Amino acid sequence: MEHTIALEGMEFFAYHGYFKEEQKIGNKYGVDLIVATNFEKAALTDDLDGTINYMELYEIVKQRMAISTKLLEHIGQNIVDDIYKKWEKSTNEVSVTIKKFNPPIGGICTASSITIKQ
Fold it and tell me: Domain of 32?
């Protein structure tokens, strides 16, 4: 049986970007995370040990968003890797989307984004 745990619409102010100005000024980012797992044990027993704790998932994303990087792709891969390391046996798939609001592209653009599904 396959189940998913999702954290949608997480928001962070962070200092990511290819350009030095982006790393100094900072920007608003959005993150959506979906983890495929099997939480049947938790559903049957009402025990948190039978699932992936979404507060711990949030902490992984928060910690990675706090580390200034040039590329959203790098942040996304690090989040995916951290989740697989922590829940190696219970994680079947991770999907993370990171959005940079108002990216500096020289025109109007609400957000740029990347998605990693692994």
Answer: 3-117
CATH number at residue 34: 3.30.1130.10
Distance CA 46, CA 27 (A): 39
Question: CA-CA distance, 108 to 68, in Å (whole number)?
Answer: 24
How many other CB atoms are there within 10 angstroms of residue 75's CB atom?
A: 24
Q: Determine whether 86 is an active site residue.
A: no
Catalytic position from the list 41, 62, 86, 100: 100
Q: How many domains does the chain have?
A: 1
pTM of the complete model:
0.94
Q: What is the pLDDT of residues 77-102, one digit of tens each?
A: 999 999 999 999 999 999 999 999 99
Residue 93: partners with Cβ closer than 8 Å, 6 or more residues away: 35, 36, 117, 118
For 85-111, give one letter per residue: b (16+ CB within 10 A) or e: eebeeebeebbbbbbbeebeeeeeeee
